[in-house]
Task: inverse folding
């Protein structure tokens, strides 16, 4: 059974939309390359949305400051600068509360939508609407401190009280992703926890026959040893 199918555009959709091929699963939910089976994560930003008006009046650059987060000591305010879909922003502004002045702009992902302080008080996690990852900021240094793989068009983020787990709302997938979080002096790391999925080793079994091993190789799937187990596959969250 083929779980992937084209989603038929609704009546009244633009001609440009009908020419594109959108993929979904059996439940009609859109998916992205983040969850493609047996692939490595690659951080990506979506390209800006082109203006469909060839006679549009040129506009000045606008940051569109949107949401704020306060540092643990209350001395700094972090402001997301999403820009627009045609000209997305890639910075987080840092404001000194006492002087009410911008003291720094930190480079992050594309179109930062929201920023949430981790319960530990040191790290700030920024949700990038047009990126398939979250940006981590070290508020002690006001510098980027890594990324967390996620998906495009994520918007809301809530940490558990102990900071070991988080819930990320994805408008693109129409889902809430569960994240495992680890934070210490060396940094903050996170990953999406699988909620069900496909396990290649369980499905194929072991040991792997020579015939099956050759068939897998033709499809780009490798095994660990001549008659060893199939390489453990990452668990893939169920969509829908």
Result:
């Amino acid at each position: 059974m083929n779980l992937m199918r084209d989603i038929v555009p609704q009546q009244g959709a633009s001609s440009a939309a009908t020419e594109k091929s959108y993929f979904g699963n059996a439940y009609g939910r859109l998916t992205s390359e983040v969850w493609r089976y047996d692939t490595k994560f690659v951080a990506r930003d979506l390209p800006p949305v082109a203006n469909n008006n060839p006679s549009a009046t040129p506009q000045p650059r606008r940051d569109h400051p949107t949401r704020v987060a306060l540092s643990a000591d209350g001395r700094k305010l972090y402001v997301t600068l999403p820009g627009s879909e045609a000209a997305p922003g890639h910075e987080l502004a840092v404001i000194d509360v006492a002087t009410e002045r911008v003291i720094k702009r930190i480079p992050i992902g594309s179109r930062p939508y929201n920023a949430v302080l981790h319960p530990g008080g040191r790290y700030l996690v920024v949700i990038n609407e047009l990126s398939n990852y979250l940006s981590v900021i070290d508020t002690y240094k006001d510098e980027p401190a890594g990324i967390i793989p996620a998906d495009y068009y994520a918007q809301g983020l809530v940490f558990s009280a102990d900071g070991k787990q988080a819930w990320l709302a994805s408008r693109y997938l129409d889902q809430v992703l569960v994240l495992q979080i680890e934070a210490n002096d060396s940094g903050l790391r996170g990953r999406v926890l699988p909620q069900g999925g496909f396990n290649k080793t369980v499905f194929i079994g072991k040991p792997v026959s020579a015939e099956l091993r050759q068939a897998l190789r033709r499809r780009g799937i490798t095994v660990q040893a001549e008659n060893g187990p199939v390489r453990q596959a990452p668990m893939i969250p169920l969509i829908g």
Summary: DSSP finds three helices and 14 strands in the chain. The first strand starts at residue 5 and ends at 6. The two ends are 17 Å apart (CA to CA).
